[in-house]
Amino acid sequence: MAKTCEFLAEASLTATPLLPPVSTPPPSSSKANHVLKIGGYPVEGISIGGKETCVIFPTLSLAFDIGLCLQRAVSQEFLFISHGHLDHIGGLPMYVSARGFLRLRPPTIFIPACLRDLVEQLFDVHRAITRSELKHKLVPLEVGEIYQLRRDLKVRAFRTYHVLPSQGYVIYWVKEKIKHEFIGLPGSEIKRLRLSGVEITNTLSTPEIAFTGDTTSEFILDPDNADVLAAKILVVELVGQSDKLLNKAILLIHFSARYTSEVG
């Protein structure tokens, strides 16, 4: 059984909104300095059902969803949007604007392919309102489509089951491993073979982090989602069918604001 870690539902971990809500008191120093670590990764953000979700893996410079624009999210280069509900996408224009204001490179934003035209219209409206460029790279992904983030990291979109068109994302580590038949050859020979066009390595992809966004447990039964269930870390709204999960750690998100962590 995977180790289960709960994400705070009522307050961010180390990230704070660009403008903290008036009704929210400043976090105590102990909470402000607390960093949740899962599977060796620091994880930051907030997830409150119907209000906002943003889950950040700062060492990989990526964030999943952006209901509001957390200050910590602004520094992440890659953003993955699961679906169009405002508690998951509402902070998108501000995220791009804030990066531009700080003179950071334009971010790369991944969205379900079916939202492409609507998201482009969203940015057009905000450009007209703000008279700013809002530079970014928009990457619409179909379910099953893979995108290379960098040489050692890639992402694949997977199907989730929600009332709106939605998808999750699996982040993979990518490694090149020399083929067995070439092990032990001198470096000069390896170089010669490579220059002659011989494929001397195999590409190994390991599912590291999976993020579902909002979904029913049907995603667990989807045969195309095997890598989601085997990823080192699963970030998920619920864990039905838990006997099928092979993840080393599970991060629960999207708790209702109607409940507190207090136990009576």
TrEMBL record:
<dbReference type="InterPro" id="IPR036866">
    <property type="entry name" value="RibonucZ/Hydroxyglut_hydro"/>
</dbReference>
<protein>
    <recommendedName>
        <fullName>Metallo-beta-lactamase domain-containing protein</fullName>
    </recommendedName>
</protein>
<dbReference type="Pfam" id="PF23023">
    <property type="entry name" value="Anti-Pycsar_Apyc1"/>
</dbReference>
